[in-house]
Amino acid sequence: MKTMLNIALPKGRLGEKVYAMFEKAGFPCPSIKENNRKLIFENEECGVRYFWVKPSDVAIYVERGAADIGVAGKDILLEYEPDIYELLDLGLGKCRMAVAAKADFRDDTRKTLRVATKFTNIASAYYRSKGRDIDIIHLNGSIEIAPILGLSDVIVDIVETGTTLKENNLLVYDTIVPISARLIANKTSYKFKGSEIDQILRSMAAQMEESK
Ligand code: PRP
């Protein structure tokens, strides 16, 4: 029996782009385009099984070996530090992790800074590196509301186009780190399915060169 390569794709537009890259790399699975409710697709002939998962969950599937490889955002890799191999920066889904606040915000260093974010580890590490005392407020979404309602002084969040900040009258104060999508692999899978994974890695690197 042929070994199957299990690939976790981030659900959404980024995932569709990424699937096209896997297809070009020699792992097509045409049925994936036919059904938008099903979550698992298989092409036994090519030895590949794809599944759509929430983008922030891809690294969990890969770390635990439910997926051999997948594509995850650098934000998730920095926040959760999963024990995986980061193989390639795909240059897709580009955005940045930033500190934002209301236009009239002035940092009063005598006070503990209240920081609202989904990314508590990234935010803590950033302010630790600056020696700034903070009080982390963990939120699950709509972070931009926090400074407006006085729940926090600043937010640490993803900024892509900047529209969400603008619409809520917030300004970027600092960029913490640029973010993009990464091809990641389970460490054991990389040992045992290395030739297939390397084929994908090489093809994706070549596809990126071509599109430059
Ligand atoms: C992210 C982020 C911002 C928004 C930034 O949220 O949290 O709210 O995108 O994008 P922009 O700069 O292009 O406006 P996302 O849509 O990923 O959903 P979330 O609220 O679940 O984080």
Structure description:
- This protein has 212 residues and is α/β, with parallel strands linked by helices.
- Helices cover 32% and strands 31% of the residues.
- It has a 6-stranded mixed beta sheet with strand order 2-3-1-4-11-5. A 5-stranded mixed beta sheet has the order 8-7-9-6-10.
- Strand 7, helix 4 (120-129) and strand 8 (134-138) form a beta-alpha-beta unit.
- The radius of gyration is 20 Å and the shape is elongated.
- Bound molecules: 1-O-pyrophosphono-5-O-phosphono-alpha-D-ribofuranose (PRP).
Radius of gyration: 20 Å
β-strand amount:
25-35%
Which blocks of ≥5 consecutive residues have pLDDT under 50?
Answer: none
* Form type: elongated
Order of helical and strand elements:
EHEEHEHEEEHEHEHEEHH
Termini Cα gap: 39 Å
Q: How many separate helices?
A: 8
For the biggest β-sheet, the strand order reads 2-3-1-4-11-5
Structural class: alpha/beta
Summarize the amount of helix as a percent range. Answer: 25-40%
Mean pLDDT: 96
Number of strands: 11
Present as ligands are: 1-O-pyrophosphono-5-O-phosphono-alpha-D-ribofuranose
Largest sheet: 6 strands, mixed
Key terms:
single chain; 212 residues; alpha/beta; six-stranded mixed β-sheet; five-stranded mixed β-sheet; 32% helix; 31% strand; elongated; binds 1-O-pyrophosphono-5-O-phosphono-alpha-D-ribofuranose
Secondary structure elements and pairings:
Blueprint: E1 5-10, H1 13-24, E2 40-43, E3 48-53, H2 58-63, E4 69-73, H3 74-80, E5 85-89, E6 95-102, E7 113-117, H4 120-129, E8 134-138, H5 145-148, E9 154-159, H6 163-167, E10 170-179, E11 181-185, H7 187-192, H8 194-210
Parallel strand pairs: 1-3, 1-4, 7-8, 7-9
Antiparallel strand pairs: 2-3, 4-11, 5-11, 6-9, 6-10
